[in-house]
Design a protein that fits this description.
The protein is α+β, with helices and mostly antiparallel strands. The protein is built from 20 helices and 26 strands. α7 packs antiparallel against α8. The protein is globular and about 75 Å long.
Protein backbone atom coordinates (compact mmCIF):
# COMPACT_ATOMS: atom_id res chain seq x y z
CA UNK A 1 0.00 0.00 0.00
CA UNK A 2 1.48 3.32 -1.09
CA UNK A 3 1.30 6.50 0.91
CA UNK A 4 3.44 8.54 3.19
CA UNK A 5 3.38 8.16 6.97
CA UNK A 6 0.88 10.47 8.60
CA UNK A 7 2.03 13.64 10.24
CA UNK A 8 0.93 13.81 13.83
CA UNK A 9 -1.53 16.65 13.70
CA UNK A 10 -2.19 18.61 16.85
CA UNK A 11 -5.17 20.78 17.64
CA UNK A 12 -7.46 21.79 20.46
CA UNK A 13 -9.58 19.07 22.02
CA UNK A 14 -12.44 21.42 22.59
CA UNK A 15 -14.68 19.31 20.37
CA UNK A 16 -14.51 16.44 22.86
CA UNK A 17 -15.17 18.56 25.92
CA UNK A 18 -18.07 20.58 24.50
CA UNK A 19 -21.49 19.60 25.80
CA UNK A 20 -23.53 18.93 22.68
CA UNK A 21 -26.89 17.18 22.64
CA UNK A 22 -27.19 13.96 20.69
CA UNK A 23 -29.88 15.50 18.50
CA UNK A 24 -27.59 18.45 17.68
CA UNK A 25 -24.69 16.17 16.88
CA UNK A 26 -26.73 14.06 14.52
CA UNK A 27 -28.15 17.14 12.82
CA UNK A 28 -24.70 18.59 12.35
CA UNK A 29 -23.46 15.33 10.87
CA UNK A 30 -26.40 15.33 8.50
CA UNK A 31 -25.34 18.66 7.06
CA UNK A 32 -26.23 21.54 9.37
CA UNK A 33 -23.63 24.17 10.17
CA UNK A 34 -21.47 23.34 13.17
CA UNK A 35 -22.69 25.36 16.13
CA UNK A 36 -19.82 25.24 18.61
CA UNK A 37 -17.02 27.78 18.63
CA UNK A 38 -14.38 25.08 18.35
CA UNK A 39 -15.96 23.64 15.23
CA UNK A 40 -16.35 27.07 13.62
CA UNK A 41 -12.69 27.70 14.26
CA UNK A 42 -11.85 24.37 12.65
CA UNK A 43 -13.81 25.31 9.52
CA UNK A 44 -11.98 28.63 9.34
CA UNK A 45 -8.62 26.87 9.72
CA UNK A 46 -9.46 24.37 7.01
CA UNK A 47 -10.43 27.14 4.64
CA UNK A 48 -7.18 29.01 5.26
CA UNK A 49 -4.98 28.40 2.20
CA UNK A 50 -1.62 28.58 3.99
CA UNK A 51 -2.02 25.79 6.53
CA UNK A 52 -3.92 22.99 4.83
CA UNK A 53 -2.80 19.84 3.07
CA UNK A 54 -4.15 16.45 2.16
CA UNK A 55 -5.19 14.36 5.15
CA UNK A 56 -2.60 11.65 5.59
CA UNK A 57 -3.02 8.91 8.19
CA UNK A 58 -1.51 5.61 9.21
CA UNK A 59 -3.44 2.47 10.11
CA UNK A 60 -1.57 0.44 12.73
CA UNK A 61 -2.42 -3.24 12.71
CA UNK A 62 -1.09 -6.79 13.11
CA UNK A 63 0.65 -9.08 10.58
CA UNK A 64 -1.33 -11.74 8.75
CA UNK A 65 0.59 -14.61 10.33
CA UNK A 66 -0.69 -13.62 13.79
CA UNK A 67 -4.08 -12.07 12.94
CA UNK A 68 -5.11 -12.40 9.33
CA UNK A 69 -8.48 -10.77 9.96
CA UNK A 70 -6.95 -7.58 11.37
CA UNK A 71 -4.66 -7.31 8.36
CA UNK A 72 -7.54 -7.79 5.93
CA UNK A 73 -9.74 -5.28 7.73
CA UNK A 74 -6.94 -2.71 7.66
CA UNK A 75 -6.40 -3.20 3.93
CA UNK A 76 -10.11 -2.92 3.16
CA UNK A 77 -10.30 0.27 5.22
CA UNK A 78 -7.23 1.72 3.52
CA UNK A 79 -8.74 1.11 0.09
CA UNK A 80 -11.97 2.86 1.05
CA UNK A 81 -10.19 5.83 2.62
CA UNK A 82 -8.03 6.32 -0.45
CA UNK A 83 -11.17 6.22 -2.59
CA UNK A 84 -12.55 9.23 -0.70
CA UNK A 85 -9.36 11.27 -1.00
CA UNK A 86 -7.32 10.35 2.11
CA UNK A 87 -3.64 9.43 1.87
CA UNK A 88 -3.17 6.16 3.77
CA UNK A 89 -0.26 3.98 4.86
CA UNK A 90 -0.43 0.74 6.83
CA UNK A 91 1.96 0.11 9.72
CA UNK A 92 2.09 -3.63 10.37
CA UNK A 93 3.57 -4.50 13.76
CA UNK A 94 4.12 -7.67 15.74
CA UNK A 95 1.71 -8.32 18.60
CA UNK A 96 4.18 -7.00 21.18
CA UNK A 97 5.01 -3.91 19.09
CA UNK A 98 1.32 -3.29 18.34
CA UNK A 99 0.48 -3.28 22.03
CA UNK A 100 3.49 -1.12 22.84
CA UNK A 101 2.58 1.42 20.16
CA UNK A 102 -1.15 1.55 20.84
CA UNK A 103 -1.53 0.66 24.53
CA UNK A 104 1.65 2.12 26.02
CA UNK A 105 3.04 4.85 23.79
CA UNK A 106 -0.27 5.99 22.24
CA UNK A 107 1.66 6.77 19.06
CA UNK A 108 -0.90 5.91 16.40
CA UNK A 109 -3.51 7.57 14.21
CA UNK A 110 -6.03 4.79 13.86
CA UNK A 111 -5.63 1.12 14.70
CA UNK A 112 -7.36 -2.08 13.74
CA UNK A 113 -7.24 -5.05 16.07
CA UNK A 114 -8.92 -7.49 18.40
CA UNK A 115 -10.30 -5.94 21.59
CA UNK A 116 -10.46 -8.17 24.71
CA UNK A 117 -13.94 -6.83 25.49
CA UNK A 118 -15.72 -8.29 28.48
CA UNK A 119 -18.64 -10.44 29.58
CA UNK A 120 -20.09 -7.53 31.58
CA UNK A 121 -20.47 -3.92 30.35
CA UNK A 122 -18.50 -2.68 33.36
CA UNK A 123 -15.36 -3.29 31.25
CA UNK A 124 -16.31 -0.04 29.48
CA UNK A 125 -15.40 1.83 32.68
CA UNK A 126 -11.70 1.22 32.17
CA UNK A 127 -12.00 1.20 28.38
CA UNK A 128 -13.39 4.75 28.14
CA UNK A 129 -13.34 6.64 31.47
CA UNK A 130 -11.40 9.89 31.20
CA UNK A 131 -9.36 9.22 34.37
CA UNK A 132 -7.53 6.56 32.35
CA UNK A 133 -6.87 8.59 29.19
CA UNK A 134 -3.12 8.73 29.83
CA UNK A 135 -2.62 5.30 31.33
CA UNK A 136 -1.27 2.17 29.71
CA UNK A 137 -2.90 -1.10 28.79
CA UNK A 138 -6.49 -1.41 27.64
CA UNK A 139 -7.40 1.49 29.93
CA UNK A 140 -8.72 4.05 27.46
CA UNK A 141 -5.99 3.70 24.80
CA UNK A 142 -8.01 6.08 22.61
CA UNK A 143 -7.59 9.07 24.95
CA UNK A 144 -11.34 9.63 24.90
CA UNK A 145 -12.85 12.10 27.39
CA UNK A 146 -16.47 13.01 27.90
CA UNK A 147 -18.00 14.09 31.22
CA UNK A 148 -21.43 12.71 30.36
CA UNK A 149 -20.03 9.28 29.58
CA UNK A 150 -17.95 9.42 32.78
CA UNK A 151 -21.11 10.09 34.79
CA UNK A 152 -22.93 7.18 33.16
CA UNK A 153 -19.96 4.84 33.68
CA UNK A 154 -19.91 5.69 37.36
CA UNK A 155 -23.66 5.45 37.72
CA UNK A 156 -23.85 1.94 36.27
CA UNK A 157 -21.60 0.86 39.14
CA UNK A 158 -24.07 2.19 41.72
CA UNK A 159 -27.36 0.81 40.42
CA UNK A 160 -28.70 -2.63 39.62
CA UNK A 161 -31.45 -4.48 37.79
CA UNK A 162 -33.47 -2.67 35.15
CA UNK A 163 -32.01 0.66 36.23
CA UNK A 164 -28.50 -0.53 35.37
CA UNK A 165 -29.72 -1.75 31.97
CA UNK A 166 -31.08 1.75 31.32
CA UNK A 167 -27.80 3.41 32.29
CA UNK A 168 -25.80 0.98 30.13
CA UNK A 169 -28.15 1.79 27.25
CA UNK A 170 -27.31 5.48 27.74
CA UNK A 171 -23.59 4.67 27.65
CA UNK A 172 -23.98 2.68 24.44
CA UNK A 173 -26.05 5.46 22.90
CA UNK A 174 -23.26 7.97 23.58
CA UNK A 175 -20.61 5.60 22.23
CA UNK A 176 -22.64 4.99 19.08
CA UNK A 177 -23.07 8.74 18.59
CA UNK A 178 -19.46 9.74 19.19
CA UNK A 179 -17.67 6.61 17.94
CA UNK A 180 -14.41 6.80 19.97
CA UNK A 181 -13.88 3.38 18.48
CA UNK A 182 -15.91 1.47 15.91
CA UNK A 183 -16.97 -2.04 16.99
CA UNK A 184 -16.99 -4.15 13.83
CA UNK A 185 -17.87 -7.72 14.69
CA UNK A 186 -17.71 -10.53 17.23
CA UNK A 187 -15.85 -13.50 15.73
CA UNK A 188 -16.73 -17.12 16.29
CA UNK A 189 -13.98 -19.00 18.15
CA UNK A 190 -13.11 -22.41 16.74
CA UNK A 191 -10.47 -24.88 17.90
CA UNK A 192 -9.55 -28.38 16.79
CA UNK A 193 -9.38 -31.08 19.47
CA UNK A 194 -8.63 -34.79 19.56
CA UNK A 195 -11.47 -36.89 20.87
CA UNK A 196 -9.58 -40.20 20.91
CA UNK A 197 -7.25 -39.00 23.68
CA UNK A 198 -9.60 -36.83 25.75
CA UNK A 199 -13.29 -36.61 26.43
CA UNK A 200 -15.44 -33.88 27.99
CA UNK A 201 -14.15 -31.16 25.66
CA UNK A 202 -16.34 -28.09 25.73
CA UNK A 203 -17.35 -28.12 29.40
CA UNK A 204 -15.09 -25.12 29.86
CA UNK A 205 -14.08 -22.29 27.52
CA UNK A 206 -10.59 -22.94 26.12
CA UNK A 207 -9.70 -19.27 26.61
CA UNK A 208 -9.99 -19.90 30.37
CA UNK A 209 -8.52 -22.32 32.90
CA UNK A 210 -11.67 -24.43 32.98
CA UNK A 211 -11.13 -25.53 29.38
CA UNK A 212 -8.03 -27.48 30.44
CA UNK A 213 -9.40 -28.93 33.67
CA UNK A 214 -11.76 -31.85 34.21
CA UNK A 215 -10.95 -33.51 30.89
CA UNK A 216 -11.25 -37.29 30.73
CA UNK A 217 -7.98 -38.79 29.42
CA UNK A 218 -8.00 -42.14 27.68
CA UNK A 219 -6.16 -45.05 29.28
CA UNK A 220 -2.44 -44.40 29.45
CA UNK A 221 -2.70 -40.68 28.51
CA UNK A 222 -0.88 -38.54 31.08
CA UNK A 223 0.03 -35.48 28.96
CA UNK A 224 -2.19 -32.79 27.43
CA UNK A 225 -0.52 -31.40 24.30
CA UNK A 226 -1.55 -27.92 23.16
CA UNK A 227 -0.32 -25.97 20.17
CA UNK A 228 -0.60 -22.30 19.24
CA UNK A 229 1.06 -19.77 16.95
CA UNK A 230 1.60 -17.08 19.59
CA UNK A 231 5.09 -17.50 21.08
CA UNK A 232 4.66 -14.80 23.71
CA UNK A 233 3.87 -17.18 26.61
CA UNK A 234 7.29 -18.80 26.11
CA UNK A 235 8.91 -15.36 26.44
CA UNK A 236 6.92 -13.81 29.26
CA UNK A 237 4.60 -15.14 31.98
CA UNK A 238 4.03 -11.87 33.77
CA UNK A 239 0.29 -11.39 34.49
CA UNK A 240 0.80 -7.59 34.40
CA UNK A 241 2.43 -7.39 30.96
CA UNK A 242 -0.39 -6.06 28.79
CA UNK A 243 1.78 -6.30 25.67
CA UNK A 244 2.21 -10.07 26.21
CA UNK A 245 -1.30 -10.93 27.35
CA UNK A 246 -4.46 -11.49 25.32
CA UNK A 247 -6.49 -14.44 26.53
CA UNK A 248 -5.17 -15.54 29.91
CA UNK A 249 -5.72 -19.32 29.98
CA UNK A 250 -2.14 -20.21 30.88
CA UNK A 251 -1.84 -17.42 33.43
CA UNK A 252 -5.14 -18.67 34.90
CA UNK A 253 -3.64 -22.15 35.23
CA UNK A 254 -0.61 -20.77 37.07
CA UNK A 255 -2.40 -18.24 39.29
CA UNK A 256 -5.58 -18.75 41.29
CA UNK A 257 -8.17 -16.02 41.69
CA UNK A 258 -10.67 -15.76 44.51
CA UNK A 259 -13.48 -16.47 42.06
CA UNK A 260 -14.06 -17.59 38.49
CA UNK A 261 -16.68 -16.68 35.95
CA UNK A 262 -18.82 -19.39 34.37
CA UNK A 263 -21.77 -18.76 32.09
CA UNK A 264 -21.99 -15.17 33.29
CA UNK A 265 -22.03 -16.12 36.99
CA UNK A 266 -19.25 -15.45 39.51
CA UNK A 267 -18.43 -18.60 41.51
CA UNK A 268 -15.95 -19.43 44.32
CA UNK A 269 -12.47 -20.68 43.44
CA UNK A 270 -9.62 -19.93 45.85
CA UNK A 271 -12.26 -18.39 48.11
CA UNK A 272 -14.33 -21.08 49.77
CA UNK A 273 -17.17 -18.58 50.19
CA UNK A 274 -17.99 -14.91 50.60
CA UNK A 275 -20.85 -12.90 51.97
CA UNK A 276 -22.10 -9.53 50.79
CA UNK A 277 -23.30 -6.97 53.30
CA UNK A 278 -23.97 -3.40 52.15
CA UNK A 279 -20.65 -2.60 50.50
CA UNK A 280 -18.54 -5.21 52.30
CA UNK A 281 -17.39 -8.56 50.90
CA UNK A 282 -16.49 -10.95 53.72
CA UNK A 283 -14.16 -13.55 52.17
CA UNK A 284 -13.03 -16.90 53.57
CA UNK A 285 -10.17 -18.65 51.74
CA UNK A 286 -9.93 -22.39 51.37
CA UNK A 287 -7.85 -23.82 54.18
CA UNK A 288 -4.30 -25.07 53.74
CA UNK A 289 -3.57 -23.74 50.24
CA UNK A 290 0.04 -23.13 49.25
CA UNK A 291 1.97 -21.46 46.48
CA UNK A 292 4.08 -23.58 44.16
CA UNK A 293 7.17 -22.93 46.29
CA UNK A 294 5.48 -24.32 49.40
CA UNK A 295 4.69 -21.00 51.09
CA UNK A 296 1.14 -20.71 52.45
CA UNK A 297 -1.54 -18.65 50.70
CA UNK A 298 -2.91 -16.24 53.29
CA UNK A 299 -5.24 -13.30 53.58
CA UNK A 300 -2.13 -11.10 53.71
CA UNK A 301 -1.18 -12.29 50.20
CA UNK A 302 -4.65 -11.39 48.95
CA UNK A 303 -4.51 -7.97 50.62
CA UNK A 304 -1.04 -7.35 49.18
CA UNK A 305 -2.26 -8.28 45.68
CA UNK A 306 -5.02 -5.68 45.65
CA UNK A 307 -2.84 -2.97 47.15
CA UNK A 308 -0.04 -3.77 44.74
CA UNK A 309 -2.28 -3.71 41.67
CA UNK A 310 -3.63 -0.34 42.81
CA UNK A 311 -0.13 1.09 43.34
CA UNK A 312 2.96 -0.81 42.22
CA UNK A 313 5.17 1.81 43.88
CA UNK A 314 3.84 0.63 47.26
CA UNK A 315 3.28 4.21 48.42
CA UNK A 316 6.85 5.26 47.57
CA UNK A 317 5.81 7.88 45.02
CA UNK A 318 3.68 10.98 45.29
CA UNK A 319 1.12 9.64 42.82
CA UNK A 320 0.02 5.97 42.66
CA UNK A 321 1.43 3.79 39.88
CA UNK A 322 -1.38 1.33 39.10
CA UNK A 323 -0.73 -1.89 37.21
CA UNK A 324 -1.54 -1.79 33.47
CA UNK A 325 -3.91 -4.75 33.89
CA UNK A 326 -6.89 -5.38 36.16
CA UNK A 327 -7.24 -1.62 36.64
CA UNK A 328 -11.01 -1.37 36.56
CA UNK A 329 -11.48 -4.39 38.82
CA UNK A 330 -9.09 -3.29 41.57
CA UNK A 331 -10.28 0.33 41.45
CA UNK A 332 -13.59 -0.94 42.84
CA UNK A 333 -11.88 -1.94 46.11
CA UNK A 334 -11.58 0.84 48.70
CA UNK A 335 -10.07 -1.04 51.65
CA UNK A 336 -8.69 -4.54 52.24
CA UNK A 337 -8.59 -5.76 55.82
CA UNK A 338 -7.23 -9.19 56.79
CA UNK A 339 -9.21 -10.60 59.72
CA UNK A 340 -7.25 -13.79 60.13
CA UNK A 341 -4.93 -16.17 58.29
CA UNK A 342 -7.64 -17.13 55.80
CA UNK A 343 -10.24 -14.44 56.36
CA UNK A 344 -10.45 -10.88 55.02
CA UNK A 345 -12.91 -8.10 54.21
CA UNK A 346 -13.04 -5.91 51.12
CA UNK A 347 -15.05 -2.71 51.18
CA UNK A 348 -16.33 -1.37 47.87
CA UNK A 349 -18.35 1.56 46.59
CA UNK A 350 -20.49 -0.26 44.06
CA UNK A 351 -23.23 -2.86 43.72
CA UNK A 352 -22.77 -6.54 44.49
CA UNK A 353 -22.92 -7.48 40.79
CA UNK A 354 -20.00 -5.21 39.87
CA UNK A 355 -18.12 -5.80 43.14
CA UNK A 356 -17.89 -9.55 42.61
CA UNK A 357 -15.89 -8.93 39.44
CA UNK A 358 -13.09 -7.63 41.64
CA UNK A 359 -12.65 -11.23 42.83
CA UNK A 360 -11.40 -12.35 39.39
CA UNK A 361 -7.84 -10.97 39.58
CA UNK A 362 -4.87 -13.38 40.05
CA UNK A 363 -3.48 -13.64 43.58
CA UNK A 364 0.27 -12.97 43.88
CA UNK A 365 2.65 -14.31 46.53
CA UNK A 366 3.63 -11.24 48.54
CA UNK A 367 7.05 -12.69 49.43
CA UNK A 368 8.02 -12.61 45.73
CA UNK A 369 6.24 -9.56 44.31
CA UNK A 370 6.94 -7.16 47.18
CA UNK A 371 10.54 -6.84 46.00
CA UNK A 372 9.38 -5.95 42.49
CA UNK A 373 7.58 -2.83 43.62
CA UNK A 374 8.97 0.37 45.03
CA UNK A 375 10.74 2.96 42.93
CA UNK A 376 9.10 3.87 39.65
CA UNK A 377 11.40 3.65 36.67
CA UNK A 378 12.08 6.88 34.86
CA UNK A 379 13.36 7.87 31.40
CA UNK A 380 15.93 5.49 29.99
CA UNK A 381 14.56 2.53 31.89
CA UNK A 382 13.35 0.91 28.68
CA UNK A 383 9.73 1.17 29.74
CA UNK A 384 7.44 3.85 28.40
CA UNK A 385 4.25 3.67 30.43
CA UNK A 386 2.45 6.92 31.09
CA UNK A 387 1.79 6.37 34.78
CA UNK A 388 5.27 4.96 35.40
CA UNK A 389 6.29 1.39 35.99
CA UNK A 390 8.37 -0.84 38.19
CA UNK A 391 10.25 -4.07 37.78
CA UNK A 392 6.89 -5.74 38.28
CA UNK A 393 5.81 -4.80 34.77
CA UNK A 394 9.02 -5.29 32.81
CA UNK A 395 10.09 -8.60 34.41
CA UNK A 396 9.43 -11.72 32.34
CA UNK A 397 8.41 -13.49 35.57
CA UNK A 398 10.10 -16.76 34.66
CA UNK A 399 9.88 -19.00 36.55
CA UNK A 400 6.43 -17.90 37.73
CA UNK A 401 5.25 -18.85 41.21
CA UNK A 402 1.51 -18.97 41.71
CA UNK A 403 -0.89 -21.30 43.48
CA UNK A 404 -2.83 -22.57 40.45
CA UNK A 405 -3.62 -26.13 39.35
CA UNK A 406 -0.51 -26.30 37.16
CA UNK A 407 3.00 -25.09 37.95
CA UNK A 408 5.83 -24.03 35.65
CA UNK A 409 8.26 -26.77 34.67
CA UNK A 410 10.35 -25.55 31.73
CA UNK A 411 10.40 -23.51 28.55
CA UNK A 412 12.33 -23.17 25.34
CA UNK A 413 11.86 -19.61 24.23
CA UNK A 414 9.87 -19.38 21.01
CA UNK A 415 9.32 -23.13 20.88
CA UNK A 416 7.89 -24.91 23.93
CA UNK A 417 6.32 -24.26 27.33
CA UNK A 418 5.78 -27.06 29.86
CA UNK A 419 3.66 -27.17 33.02
CA UNK A 420 3.28 -29.96 35.54
CA UNK A 421 0.32 -30.71 37.73
CA UNK A 422 0.32 -29.10 41.18
CA UNK A 423 -0.73 -32.19 43.07
CA UNK A 424 -1.67 -30.40 46.29
CA UNK A 425 -4.03 -27.97 44.59
CA UNK A 426 -7.40 -27.69 46.32
CA UNK A 427 -9.29 -28.97 43.25
CA UNK A 428 -7.63 -32.36 43.92
CA UNK A 429 -9.33 -32.67 47.28
CA UNK A 430 -12.20 -35.17 47.43
CA UNK A 431 -14.32 -32.64 49.33
CA UNK A 432 -14.05 -29.98 46.58
CA UNK A 433 -16.47 -30.22 43.65
CA UNK A 434 -14.51 -28.36 40.99
CA UNK A 435 -12.78 -29.50 37.76
CA UNK A 436 -9.21 -30.59 38.43
CA UNK A 437 -6.05 -31.20 36.39
CA UNK A 438 -6.33 -34.79 35.14
CA UNK A 439 -2.90 -35.14 33.53
CA UNK A 440 0.62 -35.03 34.89
CA UNK A 441 1.82 -32.54 32.29
CA UNK A 442 0.57 -29.80 29.99
CA UNK A 443 2.84 -28.88 27.08
CA UNK A 444 2.35 -25.90 24.80
CA UNK A 445 4.11 -26.15 21.45
CA UNK A 446 4.57 -23.08 19.26
CA UNK A 447 3.95 -23.55 15.55
CA UNK A 448 4.64 -21.04 12.79
CA UNK A 449 1.14 -20.92 11.30
CA UNK A 450 -2.44 -21.87 12.02
CA UNK A 451 -2.33 -24.33 9.12
CA UNK A 452 0.61 -26.08 10.79
CA UNK A 453 -1.15 -26.07 14.16
CA UNK A 454 -4.24 -27.72 12.68
CA UNK A 455 -2.10 -30.24 10.85
CA UNK A 456 -0.22 -31.44 13.92
CA UNK A 457 -3.52 -32.02 15.75
CA UNK A 458 -4.71 -34.06 12.78
CA UNK A 459 -1.35 -35.91 12.80
CA UNK A 460 -1.78 -36.77 16.52
CA UNK A 461 1.17 -34.64 17.59
CA UNK A 462 -1.06 -32.29 19.60
CA UNK A 463 -4.45 -32.56 21.28
CA UNK A 464 -5.81 -29.01 20.93
CA UNK A 465 -5.19 -25.78 19.06
CA UNK A 466 -5.27 -23.49 22.08
CA UNK A 467 -5.50 -20.39 19.88
CA UNK A 468 -8.69 -19.92 17.81
CA UNK A 469 -8.03 -20.92 14.23
CA UNK A 470 -8.46 -18.67 11.22
CA UNK A 471 -12.04 -18.53 9.99
CA UNK A 472 -10.88 -19.55 6.53
CA UNK A 473 -9.53 -22.83 7.92
CA UNK A 474 -12.84 -23.72 9.52
CA UNK A 475 -14.48 -24.30 6.15
CA UNK A 476 -11.50 -26.38 5.01
CA UNK A 477 -11.49 -28.62 8.07
CA UNK A 478 -13.05 -31.97 7.18
CA UNK A 479 -12.42 -33.72 10.48
CA UNK A 480 -11.84 -37.38 11.24
CA UNK A 481 -13.32 -39.88 13.67
CA UNK A 482 -10.60 -38.82 16.13
CA UNK A 483 -10.83 -35.02 15.77
CA UNK A 484 -13.55 -32.47 16.29
CA UNK A 485 -14.18 -28.79 15.59
CA UNK A 486 -15.06 -27.11 18.87
CA UNK A 487 -16.85 -23.74 18.97
CA UNK A 488 -16.70 -21.44 22.00
CA UNK A 489 -18.65 -18.22 22.50
CA UNK A 490 -16.63 -15.03 22.25
CA UNK A 491 -16.77 -11.83 24.31
CA UNK A 492 -14.01 -10.19 22.25
CA UNK A 493 -14.57 -8.09 19.15
CA UNK A 494 -12.71 -6.56 16.22
CA UNK A 495 -12.57 -2.81 16.18
CA UNK A 496 -11.28 0.33 14.51
CA UNK A 497 -9.83 2.68 17.13
CA UNK A 498 -9.10 6.41 16.88
CA UNK A 499 -6.39 8.30 18.72
CA UNK A 500 -8.65 11.18 19.75
CA UNK A 501 -5.71 13.04 21.26
CA UNK A 502 -5.04 14.59 17.85
CA UNK A 503 -6.89 16.10 14.91
CA UNK A 504 -8.95 15.27 12.98
CA UNK A 505 -9.63 12.16 15.09
CA UNK A 506 -10.75 14.35 18.00
CA UNK A 507 -13.74 15.44 15.89
CA UNK A 508 -16.70 13.10 16.45
CA UNK A 509 -18.15 14.12 13.06
CA UNK A 510 -15.03 12.86 11.33
CA UNK A 511 -15.15 9.61 13.31
CA UNK A 512 -18.82 9.04 12.48
CA UNK A 513 -18.15 9.40 8.75
CA UNK A 514 -15.25 6.94 8.94
CA UNK A 515 -17.57 4.52 10.74
CA UNK A 516 -20.00 4.85 7.83
CA UNK A 517 -17.29 3.79 5.40
CA UNK A 518 -17.23 0.30 6.93
CA UNK A 519 -19.72 -2.18 5.50
CA UNK A 520 -19.72 -4.48 8.53
CA UNK A 521 -22.11 -6.99 7.03
CA UNK A 522 -19.97 -7.33 3.92
CA UNK A 523 -16.74 -7.49 5.96
CA UNK A 524 -18.00 -10.34 8.12
CA UNK A 525 -18.94 -12.29 4.99
CA UNK A 526 -15.73 -11.51 3.11
CA UNK A 527 -13.02 -11.33 5.76
CA UNK A 528 -14.52 -13.76 8.28
CA UNK A 529 -16.24 -16.09 5.78
CA UNK A 530 -19.53 -15.44 7.54
CA UNK A 531 -18.17 -16.73 10.86
CA UNK A 532 -18.61 -13.49 12.75
CA UNK A 533 -21.51 -11.36 13.92
CA UNK A 534 -21.57 -7.67 12.90
CA UNK A 535 -22.31 -5.35 15.83
CA UNK A 536 -23.20 -1.74 16.56
CA UNK A 537 -22.62 -2.03 20.34
CA UNK A 538 -19.53 -3.59 21.99
CA UNK A 539 -21.29 -5.58 24.73
CA UNK A 540 -22.90 -9.03 25.03
CA UNK A 541 -26.22 -9.28 23.20
CA UNK A 542 -28.35 -9.28 26.35
CA UNK A 543 -27.12 -5.75 27.11
CA UNK A 544 -27.76 -4.25 23.66
CA UNK A 545 -30.76 -1.87 23.66
CA UNK A 546 -33.32 -2.20 20.87
CA UNK A 547 -32.22 0.94 18.97
CA UNK A 548 -28.71 -0.54 18.59
CA UNK A 549 -29.73 -4.10 17.76
CA UNK A 550 -28.25 -5.21 14.46
CA UNK A 551 -30.88 -5.64 11.76
CA UNK A 552 -28.99 -6.00 8.49
CA UNK A 553 -27.10 -2.72 8.86
CA UNK A 554 -25.67 -0.48 11.55
CA UNK A 555 -28.67 1.44 12.94
CA UNK A 556 -26.53 4.40 14.03
CA UNK A 557 -23.87 4.75 11.31
CA UNK A 558 -25.25 2.95 8.23
CA UNK A 559 -22.83 2.20 5.43
CA UNK A 560 -22.52 4.86 2.74
CA UNK A 561 -22.78 2.42 -0.13
CA UNK A 562 -23.78 -1.18 -0.78
CA UNK A 563 -22.17 -4.61 -1.07
CA UNK A 564 -18.82 -3.32 0.16
CA UNK A 565 -18.64 -0.58 -2.47
CA UNK A 566 -18.64 2.90 -0.96
CA UNK A 567 -20.73 5.61 -2.59
CA UNK A 568 -17.90 8.05 -3.25
CA UNK A 569 -20.21 10.99 -3.86
CA UNK A 570 -22.17 10.39 -0.65
CA UNK A 571 -18.96 10.04 1.37
CA UNK A 572 -17.49 13.25 0.01
CA UNK A 573 -20.74 15.09 0.68
CA UNK A 574 -20.71 13.80 4.26
CA UNK A 575 -17.19 15.15 4.83
CA UNK A 576 -18.11 18.51 3.32
CA UNK A 577 -21.31 18.74 5.38
CA UNK A 578 -19.17 18.11 8.48
CA UNK A 579 -16.96 21.11 7.68
CA UNK A 580 -14.14 19.48 5.71
CA UNK A 581 -13.06 20.48 2.21
CA UNK A 582 -11.70 18.88 -0.95
CA UNK A 583 -9.25 20.42 -3.40
CA UNK A 584 -9.71 20.38 -7.16
CA UNK A 585 -7.87 17.04 -7.33
CA UNK A 586 -10.33 15.31 -5.03
CA UNK A 587 -8.07 15.22 -1.99
CA UNK A 588 -9.54 15.69 1.50
CA UNK A 589 -7.85 18.68 3.12
CA UNK A 590 -7.17 19.32 6.80
CA UNK A 591 -5.28 21.84 8.89
CA UNK A 592 -1.68 20.75 9.57
Amino acid sequence: MKGRRAAHNRCSRGDESSTVSRRAMLAATAGLTASTAGCLQQVRDILAPDNISQLSLTITTLPADSDRESTRLARELAEVLETVGIDVSIDIRSQVDFHQTVLYDHEFDVCVGHHPGGTDPDYLYEALHSIYDNESGWQNPFGYTDPTVDDYLEEQRRVGGDERHEVVANILDEIATQQPFVPICVPEEHRIVRTDRFGDWGKGHLATRRGYLGLEPSDGVDQLRATQIDARPTENLNPLAADYRDHGAFIDLLYDSLAIERDGEIEPWLADEWKWDDGTIDVHLREGCTFHDGEPVTAEDVAFTYRFLQDMSLDETEAPSPAPRYRGQTAIVETINPRGREHLELTVDTTETVAERALLVPIFPAHIWRDRGGDVMGPGSGASIAQGTTEAVVADNIPPVGSGPFQFEDRTQGDLLTFERFDTHFTRRPTVDLPEPTVDELSVRIDPSEEAAVQIVEDDTADVTSSPIDTGLVDEFEGTEDTMLLEDPSWTFYFLGFNVRKAPFNNFRFRRIIAQLLDKEWLTDTVFHGRARPIAAPVPEQWVPDPLTWDGSDPETPFLGSDGEVDESAARSAFEDAGFRYDDQGRLRVRQ
